Amino acid sequence: MIANTKEVNDKNFNIKRSAEEIRNLSFKDHVCIGCGICESTCPVSAITLDDVGAIVRTNSSNPKLLINEDKCVLCGMCSGVCPADALTFSIDNQPISKIDSYPKYESYAEIDDDKCIYCQKCEIACPREAITIARSLPDRSKLVTGEIEVNEETCVYCGICEEMCPADAIDVDRTPEAESINVNKDKCVYCLVCKKSCPVTAIKAACRICSYGDYDINMEDAVTKGSSFIDDELCIKCGWCEGVCPTDAAKVKKPFEGTLTIHQDTCTVCGTCVDICPCDVLSFPKPSKGGEIVNNVAKDEQYCIKCGACAKACPVEAIEVQITNVDYTPTKSKSWIAKFEALKN
Amino acid sequence: MPKHIVSGLKYLATIELKKKGLTQQKIAEELGIDRSTVSHYLNGRNLSWNSIDVAKTMTQLCPKDFLILTNVLVKNAKKTQKIISICQSKEFKADVLDSCIGCGLCVDLCLMEAVSIKSLKANISPIKCCGCLICQEGCPTNSIKILEVNNDREYQRS
Predict the structure, then answer these.
(1) pTM of the model
(2) What value of ipTM does the predicted structure carry?
Protein backbone atom coordinates (compact mmCIF):
# COMPACT_ATOMS: atom_id res chain seq x y z
CA MET A 1 0.00 0.00 0.00
CA ILE A 2 1.16 3.51 -0.76
CA ALA A 3 1.63 5.63 2.33
CA ASN A 4 2.71 9.22 2.82
CA THR A 5 5.61 10.12 5.03
CA LYS A 6 5.68 13.25 7.13
CA GLU A 7 8.74 15.08 8.36
CA VAL A 8 8.13 17.70 11.00
CA ASN A 9 10.70 20.38 11.63
CA ASP A 10 9.61 22.77 14.36
CA LYS A 11 6.46 24.42 12.95
CA ASN A 12 7.24 23.41 9.36
CA PHE A 13 6.67 20.06 7.72
CA ASN A 14 7.04 18.01 4.55
CA ILE A 15 4.56 15.40 3.36
CA LYS A 16 5.92 13.07 0.74
CA ARG A 17 4.76 10.21 -1.47
CA SER A 18 7.43 8.44 -3.44
CA ALA A 19 6.26 6.04 -6.11
CA GLU A 20 6.10 6.67 -9.86
CA GLU A 21 7.23 10.20 -9.04
CA ILE A 22 8.17 12.03 -5.86
CA ARG A 23 5.35 14.26 -4.72
CA ASN A 24 6.20 16.60 -1.90
CA LEU A 25 4.19 19.22 -0.04
CA SER A 26 6.11 21.52 2.24
CA PHE A 27 4.75 24.07 4.69
CA LYS A 28 6.60 27.08 6.03
CA ASP A 29 4.86 28.51 9.05
CA HIS A 30 6.64 31.87 9.10
CA VAL A 31 5.37 32.54 5.57
CA CYS A 32 1.77 31.46 6.32
CA ILE A 33 -0.65 34.36 6.75
CA GLY A 34 -3.41 32.25 8.28
CA CYS A 35 -6.03 32.99 5.61
CA GLY A 36 -7.39 29.45 5.57
CA ILE A 37 -7.89 29.35 1.79
CA CYS A 38 -6.08 26.00 1.77
CA GLU A 39 -8.48 24.59 4.37
CA SER A 40 -11.55 25.43 2.33
CA THR A 41 -9.94 24.27 -0.93
CA CYS A 42 -8.58 20.86 0.15
CA PRO A 43 -10.69 18.25 -1.70
CA VAL A 44 -10.14 15.61 0.98
CA SER A 45 -10.54 17.81 4.08
CA ALA A 46 -7.04 17.02 5.25
CA ILE A 47 -6.22 20.59 6.33
CA THR A 48 -7.29 22.32 9.51
CA LEU A 49 -6.50 25.93 10.21
CA ASP A 50 -5.77 26.31 13.89
CA ASP A 51 -6.88 29.29 15.95
CA VAL A 52 -4.60 31.74 14.20
CA GLY A 53 -5.70 34.70 16.30
CA ALA A 54 -4.60 32.99 19.50
CA ILE A 55 -1.40 31.67 17.91
CA VAL A 56 -0.31 35.09 16.66
CA ARG A 57 -1.28 37.00 19.80
CA THR A 58 0.31 34.56 22.24
CA ASN A 59 3.38 33.95 20.08
CA SER A 60 2.52 30.28 20.40
CA SER A 61 4.83 27.46 19.35
CA ASN A 62 1.95 25.75 17.51
CA PRO A 63 1.88 25.85 13.72
CA LYS A 64 -1.00 27.76 12.11
CA LEU A 65 -1.89 24.79 9.94
CA LEU A 66 -2.46 21.13 10.65
CA ILE A 67 -2.45 18.58 7.84
CA ASN A 68 -3.48 14.98 8.34
CA GLU A 69 -0.92 13.13 6.24
CA ASP A 70 -3.09 10.02 6.13
CA LYS A 71 -5.87 11.97 4.43
CA CYS A 72 -3.68 14.08 2.16
CA VAL A 73 -3.54 12.72 -1.40
CA LEU A 74 -0.81 15.15 -2.50
CA CYS A 75 -2.82 16.77 -5.27
CA GLY A 76 -1.16 20.17 -4.70
CA MET A 77 -4.34 22.25 -4.75
CA CYS A 78 -3.55 23.91 -1.41
CA SER A 79 -0.22 25.05 -2.81
CA GLY A 80 -1.88 26.33 -5.99
CA VAL A 81 -4.34 28.53 -4.09
CA CYS A 82 -2.03 29.69 -1.27
CA PRO A 83 -1.66 33.45 -1.81
CA ALA A 84 1.47 33.57 0.36
CA ASP A 85 3.32 30.55 -1.06
CA ALA A 86 3.55 29.08 2.43
CA LEU A 87 2.62 25.70 0.96
CA THR A 88 4.86 24.53 -1.85
CA PHE A 89 3.99 21.43 -3.81
CA SER A 90 6.58 19.86 -6.05
CA ILE A 91 6.75 16.87 -8.35
CA ASP A 92 10.20 15.36 -8.71
CA ASN A 93 11.59 18.48 -7.02
CA GLN A 94 9.97 20.78 -9.59
CA PRO A 95 7.55 23.22 -7.90
CA ILE A 96 4.17 23.32 -9.64
CA SER A 97 4.56 27.07 -10.10
CA LYS A 98 7.10 26.07 -12.74
CA ILE A 99 4.92 23.39 -14.35
CA ASP A 100 2.70 24.80 -17.12
CA SER A 101 -0.27 22.48 -16.69
CA TYR A 102 -0.86 23.78 -13.15
CA PRO A 103 -2.67 27.12 -12.77
CA LYS A 104 -1.08 29.84 -10.68
CA TYR A 105 -1.98 33.36 -9.64
CA GLU A 106 -1.12 36.19 -12.00
CA SER A 107 0.55 38.46 -9.49
CA TYR A 108 3.89 40.12 -9.05
CA ALA A 109 5.85 42.78 -7.22
CA GLU A 110 8.78 44.41 -8.97
CA ILE A 111 11.13 47.32 -8.43
CA ASP A 112 12.57 48.93 -11.56
CA ASP A 113 16.20 49.72 -10.75
CA ASP A 114 16.30 52.31 -13.55
CA LYS A 115 13.65 54.37 -11.79
CA CYS A 116 14.58 53.58 -8.18
CA ILE A 117 16.31 56.35 -6.27
CA TYR A 118 17.06 54.07 -3.31
CA CYS A 119 15.12 56.19 -0.84
CA GLN A 120 14.26 52.98 1.10
CA LYS A 121 10.67 54.11 1.70
CA CYS A 122 9.41 50.73 0.45
CA GLU A 123 11.82 48.83 2.69
CA ILE A 124 10.47 50.69 5.70
CA ALA A 125 6.83 50.39 4.63
CA CYS A 126 6.86 46.68 3.68
CA PRO A 127 4.76 44.88 6.31
CA ARG A 128 6.58 41.60 5.66
CA GLU A 129 10.11 43.00 5.70
CA ALA A 130 10.54 41.42 2.29
CA ILE A 131 12.41 44.32 0.67
CA THR A 132 16.08 45.14 0.96
CA ILE A 133 17.42 48.30 -0.64
CA ALA A 134 21.20 48.42 -0.61
CA ARG A 135 22.73 51.77 -1.51
CA SER A 136 26.14 53.40 -1.74
CA LEU A 137 26.18 57.15 -1.15
CA PRO A 138 28.21 59.60 -3.24
CA ASP A 139 31.59 60.70 -1.99
CA ARG A 140 30.89 63.86 -0.01
CA SER A 141 34.26 65.43 -0.81
CA LYS A 142 33.35 65.35 -4.50
CA LEU A 143 30.18 67.36 -3.95
CA VAL A 144 31.76 70.39 -2.22
CA THR A 145 35.04 71.92 -3.25
CA GLY A 146 36.99 74.83 -1.91
CA GLU A 147 40.21 75.84 -0.36
CA ILE A 148 41.25 76.04 3.26
CA GLU A 149 44.54 76.99 4.79
CA VAL A 150 45.71 77.62 8.36
CA ASN A 151 48.46 80.09 8.99
CA GLU A 152 50.32 78.34 11.79
CA GLU A 153 52.38 81.42 12.57
CA THR A 154 49.24 83.23 13.62
CA CYS A 155 47.32 80.22 15.05
CA VAL A 156 47.28 79.98 18.83
CA TYR A 157 45.83 76.43 18.90
CA CYS A 158 42.87 77.52 20.98
CA GLY A 159 40.74 74.69 19.58
CA ILE A 160 37.71 76.92 18.98
CA CYS A 161 37.57 75.93 15.31
CA GLU A 162 37.68 72.24 16.25
CA GLU A 163 34.73 72.67 18.61
CA MET A 164 32.79 74.73 16.09
CA CYS A 165 33.36 72.55 13.02
CA PRO A 166 30.02 70.80 12.19
CA ALA A 167 31.78 68.26 9.97
CA ASP A 168 34.32 67.15 12.55
CA ALA A 169 37.05 67.95 10.04
CA ILE A 170 39.54 69.84 12.25
CA ASP A 171 41.92 68.23 14.67
CA VAL A 172 43.89 70.48 17.03
CA ASP A 173 46.62 69.02 19.20
CA ARG A 174 47.06 71.39 22.15
CA THR A 175 49.98 69.64 23.88
CA PRO A 176 52.32 72.44 25.04
CA GLU A 177 55.39 72.80 22.78
CA ALA A 178 53.97 70.14 20.41
CA GLU A 179 50.87 71.92 19.15
CA SER A 180 49.51 71.25 15.70
CA ILE A 181 46.38 71.79 13.66
CA ASN A 182 45.17 69.57 10.89
CA VAL A 183 42.20 69.94 8.51
CA ASN A 184 40.77 66.80 6.91
CA LYS A 185 39.77 67.95 3.41
CA ASP A 186 37.61 64.86 2.79
CA LYS A 187 35.37 65.93 5.65
CA CYS A 188 35.49 69.71 5.22
CA VAL A 189 32.41 71.19 3.57
CA TYR A 190 33.84 74.73 3.34
CA CYS A 191 31.09 76.23 5.47
CA LEU A 192 33.60 78.82 6.73
CA VAL A 193 32.44 78.60 10.35
CA CYS A 194 36.07 78.07 11.45
CA LYS A 195 37.22 81.10 9.54
CA LYS A 196 34.52 83.27 11.02
CA SER A 197 35.05 82.08 14.58
CA CYS A 198 38.86 82.17 14.65
CA PRO A 199 39.84 84.84 17.21
CA VAL A 200 43.22 85.50 15.53
CA THR A 201 42.16 85.27 11.84
CA ALA A 202 44.55 82.42 11.19
CA ILE A 203 42.23 80.54 8.81
CA LYS A 204 41.78 81.39 5.17
CA ALA A 205 39.01 79.49 3.45
CA ALA A 206 36.88 79.87 0.35
CA CYS A 207 34.00 77.81 -0.92
CA ARG A 208 34.07 77.27 -4.66
CA ILE A 209 30.36 76.49 -4.80
CA CYS A 210 29.71 80.11 -3.76
CA SER A 211 31.62 81.50 -6.71
CA TYR A 212 31.13 78.81 -9.35
CA GLY A 213 27.84 77.25 -8.30
CA ASP A 214 27.10 73.68 -9.35
CA TYR A 215 29.29 73.90 -12.46
CA ASP A 216 32.23 72.68 -10.48
CA ILE A 217 30.57 69.35 -9.70
CA ASN A 218 30.49 66.30 -11.91
CA MET A 219 26.82 65.28 -11.70
CA GLU A 220 27.70 61.59 -11.94
CA ASP A 221 29.58 61.90 -8.69
CA ALA A 222 26.40 63.09 -6.99
CA VAL A 223 24.30 59.99 -7.75
CA THR A 224 23.42 57.45 -5.08
CA LYS A 225 23.84 53.96 -6.51
CA GLY A 226 22.26 50.80 -5.23
CA SER A 227 20.21 47.69 -5.80
CA SER A 228 16.79 46.46 -4.76
CA PHE A 229 15.79 42.99 -3.69
CA ILE A 230 12.34 41.54 -3.01
CA ASP A 231 12.24 38.26 -1.10
CA ASP A 232 9.66 36.33 -3.11
CA GLU A 233 9.07 33.94 -0.26
CA LEU A 234 7.85 36.68 2.07
CA CYS A 235 6.28 39.13 -0.42
CA ILE A 236 2.49 38.93 -0.51
CA LYS A 237 1.92 41.56 -3.21
CA CYS A 238 0.07 43.96 -0.91
CA GLY A 239 1.17 47.09 -2.78
CA TRP A 240 2.73 49.10 0.04
CA CYS A 241 5.97 49.53 -1.92
CA GLU A 242 4.06 50.81 -4.93
CA GLY A 243 1.98 53.08 -2.73
CA VAL A 244 4.90 54.81 -1.02
CA CYS A 245 7.32 54.88 -3.98
CA PRO A 246 7.97 58.51 -5.03
CA THR A 247 9.26 57.54 -8.49
CA ASP A 248 6.85 54.83 -9.71
CA ALA A 249 9.67 52.31 -9.58
CA ALA A 250 7.66 49.73 -7.64
CA LYS A 251 4.86 47.90 -9.44
CA VAL A 252 2.55 45.38 -7.83
CA LYS A 253 -0.19 43.20 -9.25
CA LYS A 254 -2.45 41.50 -6.72
CA PRO A 255 -4.06 38.13 -7.39
CA PHE A 256 -7.49 39.04 -5.99
CA GLU A 257 -9.91 41.90 -6.37
CA GLY A 258 -12.69 42.41 -3.89
CA THR A 259 -13.99 44.28 -0.90
CA LEU A 260 -13.33 44.44 2.83
CA THR A 261 -16.19 45.47 5.09
CA ILE A 262 -16.02 46.07 8.82
CA HIS A 263 -19.34 46.05 10.65
CA GLN A 264 -18.59 48.66 13.26
CA ASP A 265 -21.78 47.91 15.23
CA THR A 266 -20.73 44.27 15.79
CA CYS A 267 -17.00 44.96 16.25
CA THR A 268 -15.80 44.76 19.83
CA VAL A 269 -12.46 46.42 18.99
CA CYS A 270 -10.55 43.43 20.37
CA GLY A 271 -7.74 44.02 17.88
CA THR A 272 -7.28 40.42 16.70
CA CYS A 273 -7.67 41.51 13.08
CA VAL A 274 -5.15 44.32 13.57
CA ASP A 275 -2.59 41.81 14.86
CA ILE A 276 -3.31 39.25 12.20
CA CYS A 277 -3.49 41.36 9.03
CA PRO A 278 -0.39 40.53 6.96
CA CYS A 279 -0.65 43.79 5.03
CA ASP A 280 -0.96 46.38 7.81
CA VAL A 281 -4.37 47.33 6.41
CA LEU A 282 -6.21 47.38 9.73
CA SER A 283 -5.34 49.69 12.57
CA PHE A 284 -6.77 51.55 15.53
CA PRO A 285 -7.45 55.13 14.50
CA LYS A 286 -5.45 57.80 16.30
CA PRO A 287 -7.59 59.41 19.01
CA SER A 288 -8.30 63.08 18.36
CA LYS A 289 -7.33 63.98 21.91
CA GLY A 290 -5.33 62.25 24.62
CA GLY A 291 -7.14 59.71 26.78
CA GLU A 292 -9.96 59.19 24.29
CA ILE A 293 -11.00 55.54 23.94
CA VAL A 294 -10.91 54.23 20.39
CA ASN A 295 -14.13 52.42 19.60
CA ASN A 296 -13.60 51.23 16.07
CA VAL A 297 -11.06 49.69 13.70
CA ALA A 298 -9.87 51.65 10.69
CA LYS A 299 -8.90 50.18 7.32
CA ASP A 300 -6.66 51.26 4.48
CA GLU A 301 -8.12 49.11 1.74
CA GLN A 302 -5.56 50.18 -0.86
CA TYR A 303 -3.15 47.64 0.58
CA CYS A 304 -5.64 44.82 1.30
CA ILE A 305 -5.06 41.58 -0.62
CA LYS A 306 -8.51 40.21 0.30
CA CYS A 307 -7.00 37.08 1.82
CA GLY A 308 -9.73 36.94 4.45
CA ALA A 309 -7.44 36.11 7.38
CA CYS A 310 -9.03 38.89 9.47
CA ALA A 311 -12.56 37.67 8.76
CA LYS A 312 -11.60 34.08 9.76
CA ALA A 313 -9.95 35.23 12.97
CA CYS A 314 -12.62 37.72 14.05
CA PRO A 315 -14.37 36.22 17.09
CA VAL A 316 -17.64 38.08 16.43
CA GLU A 317 -17.80 37.87 12.64
CA ALA A 318 -17.65 41.62 12.26
CA ILE A 319 -15.50 41.49 9.13
CA GLU A 320 -16.58 40.43 5.67
CA VAL A 321 -14.13 39.90 2.86
CA GLN A 322 -15.46 39.34 -0.62
CA ILE A 323 -13.33 38.28 -3.54
CA THR A 324 -14.91 39.38 -6.79
CA ASN A 325 -12.14 38.45 -9.19
CA VAL A 326 -9.29 35.95 -9.18
CA ASP A 327 -6.54 36.28 -11.75
CA TYR A 328 -4.90 32.96 -12.58
CA THR A 329 -3.18 31.31 -15.53
CA PRO A 330 -5.28 29.02 -17.74
CA THR A 331 -5.48 25.29 -17.15
CA LYS A 332 -7.32 22.43 -18.80
CA SER A 333 -8.37 20.87 -15.50
CA LYS A 334 -12.02 21.61 -14.73
CA SER A 335 -11.63 20.66 -11.07
CA TRP A 336 -8.75 23.12 -10.61
CA ILE A 337 -10.69 25.87 -12.39
CA ALA A 338 -13.64 25.14 -10.10
CA LYS A 339 -11.44 25.54 -7.01
CA PHE A 340 -10.01 28.87 -8.18
CA GLU A 341 -13.49 30.10 -9.09
CA ALA A 342 -14.80 28.98 -5.70
CA LEU A 343 -12.57 31.56 -4.03
CA LYS A 344 -15.06 34.18 -5.19
CA ASN A 345 -17.92 34.55 -2.80
CA MET B 1 3.84 -24.88 -5.11
CA PRO B 2 3.64 -21.14 -5.99
CA LYS B 3 6.34 -21.78 -8.59
CA HIS B 4 4.21 -24.50 -10.21
CA ILE B 5 1.23 -22.19 -10.38
CA VAL B 6 3.38 -19.58 -12.09
CA SER B 7 4.35 -22.27 -14.60
CA GLY B 8 0.65 -22.98 -15.04
CA LEU B 9 0.04 -19.29 -15.76
CA LYS B 10 2.89 -19.24 -18.25
CA TYR B 11 1.43 -22.34 -19.90
CA LEU B 12 -1.92 -20.57 -20.33
CA ALA B 13 -0.18 -17.49 -21.70
CA THR B 14 1.78 -19.67 -24.14
CA ILE B 15 -1.42 -21.26 -25.44
CA GLU B 16 -2.99 -17.79 -25.85
CA LEU B 17 -0.04 -16.46 -27.81
CA LYS B 18 0.07 -19.58 -29.99
CA LYS B 19 -3.60 -18.94 -30.86
CA LYS B 20 -2.59 -15.48 -31.99
CA GLY B 21 -0.15 -17.14 -34.37
CA LEU B 22 3.13 -16.32 -32.67
CA THR B 23 6.09 -18.59 -33.36
CA GLN B 24 7.70 -20.55 -30.52
CA GLN B 25 10.69 -18.23 -30.65
CA LYS B 26 8.46 -15.15 -30.35
CA ILE B 27 6.45 -16.67 -27.50
CA ALA B 28 9.67 -17.45 -25.64
CA GLU B 29 10.87 -13.87 -26.06
CA GLU B 30 7.51 -12.43 -25.07
CA LEU B 31 7.30 -14.44 -21.84
CA GLY B 32 11.00 -14.40 -21.06
CA ILE B 33 11.29 -18.19 -20.96
CA ASP B 34 13.35 -20.81 -22.82
CA ARG B 35 12.22 -21.90 -26.24
CA SER B 36 12.43 -25.51 -25.08
CA THR B 37 9.95 -24.71 -22.30
CA VAL B 38 7.57 -23.28 -24.88
CA SER B 39 7.96 -26.43 -26.88
CA HIS B 40 7.20 -28.58 -23.81
CA TYR B 41 4.07 -26.54 -23.11
CA LEU B 42 2.82 -26.78 -26.66
CA ASN B 43 3.55 -30.51 -26.93
CA GLY B 44 2.00 -31.27 -23.57
CA ARG B 45 5.18 -32.71 -22.10
CA ASN B 46 6.16 -32.54 -18.40
CA LEU B 47 3.08 -30.63 -17.42
CA SER B 48 1.53 -30.42 -13.99
CA TRP B 49 -2.15 -30.48 -14.89
CA ASN B 50 -3.09 -29.78 -11.33
CA SER B 51 -1.17 -26.48 -11.38
CA ILE B 52 -2.70 -25.58 -14.71
CA ASP B 53 -6.13 -26.17 -13.20
CA VAL B 54 -5.31 -23.78 -10.36
CA ALA B 55 -3.99 -21.23 -12.89
CA LYS B 56 -7.16 -21.57 -14.95
CA THR B 57 -9.28 -21.03 -11.87
CA MET B 58 -7.30 -17.87 -11.15
CA THR B 59 -8.12 -16.43 -14.57
CA GLN B 60 -11.77 -16.95 -13.77
CA LEU B 61 -11.62 -14.96 -10.55
CA CYS B 62 -12.66 -11.33 -10.49
CA PRO B 63 -9.98 -9.19 -12.19
CA LYS B 64 -8.67 -7.74 -8.91
CA ASP B 65 -8.16 -11.17 -7.29
CA PHE B 66 -6.56 -12.54 -10.47
CA LEU B 67 -4.17 -9.58 -10.56
CA ILE B 68 -3.22 -9.54 -6.88
CA LEU B 69 -2.73 -13.31 -6.71
CA THR B 70 -0.61 -13.28 -9.85
CA ASN B 71 1.41 -10.36 -8.52
CA VAL B 72 2.14 -12.10 -5.22
CA LEU B 73 3.10 -15.34 -7.00
CA VAL B 74 5.23 -13.83 -9.76
CA LYS B 75 6.83 -11.16 -7.57
CA ASN B 76 7.79 -9.08 -10.57
CA ALA B 77 5.75 -6.12 -11.84
CA LYS B 78 6.65 -6.39 -15.53
CA LYS B 79 6.06 -10.18 -15.69
CA THR B 80 2.76 -9.81 -13.82
CA GLN B 81 1.65 -7.18 -16.32
CA LYS B 82 2.56 -9.48 -19.19
CA ILE B 83 0.67 -12.50 -17.88
CA ILE B 84 -2.42 -10.47 -16.94
CA SER B 85 -2.56 -8.68 -20.27
CA ILE B 86 -2.38 -11.98 -22.13
CA CYS B 87 -4.71 -14.03 -19.93
CA GLN B 88 -7.34 -11.42 -18.96
CA SER B 89 -10.07 -12.10 -21.48
CA LYS B 90 -12.26 -9.12 -20.65
CA GLU B 91 -11.94 -5.64 -22.10
CA PHE B 92 -12.41 -2.48 -20.09
CA LYS B 93 -12.71 1.19 -20.71
CA ALA B 94 -12.35 3.99 -18.20
CA ASP B 95 -14.30 7.16 -17.81
CA VAL B 96 -12.48 9.83 -15.84
CA LEU B 97 -14.78 12.57 -14.65
CA ASP B 98 -13.95 16.28 -14.63
CA SER B 99 -13.87 16.12 -10.84
CA CYS B 100 -10.43 14.47 -11.12
CA ILE B 101 -7.88 16.67 -9.30
CA GLY B 102 -4.79 15.08 -10.79
CA CYS B 103 -3.44 13.80 -7.47
CA GLY B 104 -1.83 10.81 -9.18
CA LEU B 105 -2.85 8.32 -6.52
CA CYS B 106 -4.28 6.07 -9.28
CA VAL B 107 -0.94 6.24 -11.12
CA ASP B 108 0.85 4.99 -8.02
CA LEU B 109 -1.79 2.36 -7.21
CA CYS B 110 -2.11 0.79 -10.67
CA LEU B 111 -0.13 -2.45 -10.89
CA MET B 112 -0.60 -2.51 -14.66
CA GLU B 113 0.98 0.91 -15.22
CA ALA B 114 -2.14 1.79 -17.18
CA VAL B 115 -2.62 5.28 -15.72
CA SER B 116 -0.85 8.53 -16.46
CA ILE B 117 -1.69 12.15 -15.68
CA LYS B 118 -2.31 14.38 -18.67
CA SER B 119 -3.23 18.04 -18.13
CA LEU B 120 -3.97 17.40 -14.44
CA LYS B 121 -6.35 14.55 -15.29
CA ALA B 122 -5.95 10.79 -15.09
CA ASN B 123 -5.67 9.04 -18.41
CA ILE B 124 -6.28 5.29 -18.36
CA SER B 125 -5.11 3.12 -21.23
CA PRO B 126 -7.89 0.65 -22.14
CA ILE B 127 -5.27 -1.68 -23.62
CA LYS B 128 -3.39 -1.96 -20.32
CA CYS B 129 -6.39 -1.75 -17.95
CA CYS B 130 -7.21 -5.14 -16.39
CA GLY B 131 -10.41 -4.03 -14.70
CA CYS B 132 -9.18 -4.58 -11.15
CA LEU B 133 -10.86 -1.34 -9.95
CA ILE B 134 -8.00 -0.58 -7.56
CA CYS B 135 -7.80 2.97 -8.98
CA GLN B 136 -11.56 3.44 -8.76
CA GLU B 137 -11.59 2.31 -5.13
CA GLY B 138 -8.60 4.47 -4.21
CA CYS B 139 -9.70 7.65 -5.97
CA PRO B 140 -10.27 10.36 -3.32
CA THR B 141 -12.81 12.19 -5.47
CA ASN B 142 -14.66 9.18 -6.96
CA SER B 143 -13.75 10.38 -10.41
CA ILE B 144 -12.96 7.03 -12.06
CA LYS B 145 -15.54 4.71 -13.57
CA ILE B 146 -14.22 1.45 -15.04
CA LEU B 147 -16.62 -0.20 -17.45
CA GLU B 148 -16.48 -3.75 -18.78
CA VAL B 149 -17.06 -3.44 -22.51
CA ASN B 150 -16.31 -6.98 -23.72
CA ASN B 151 -16.11 -10.25 -21.85
CA ASP B 152 -15.81 -12.39 -24.92
CA ARG B 153 -12.36 -11.96 -26.30
CA GLU B 154 -10.64 -14.59 -28.46
CA TYR B 155 -9.58 -16.76 -25.56
CA GLN B 156 -12.41 -19.08 -24.53
CA ARG B 157 -12.11 -20.99 -21.34
CA SER B 158 -12.62 -24.72 -21.64
Answers:
(1) 0.84
(2) 0.83
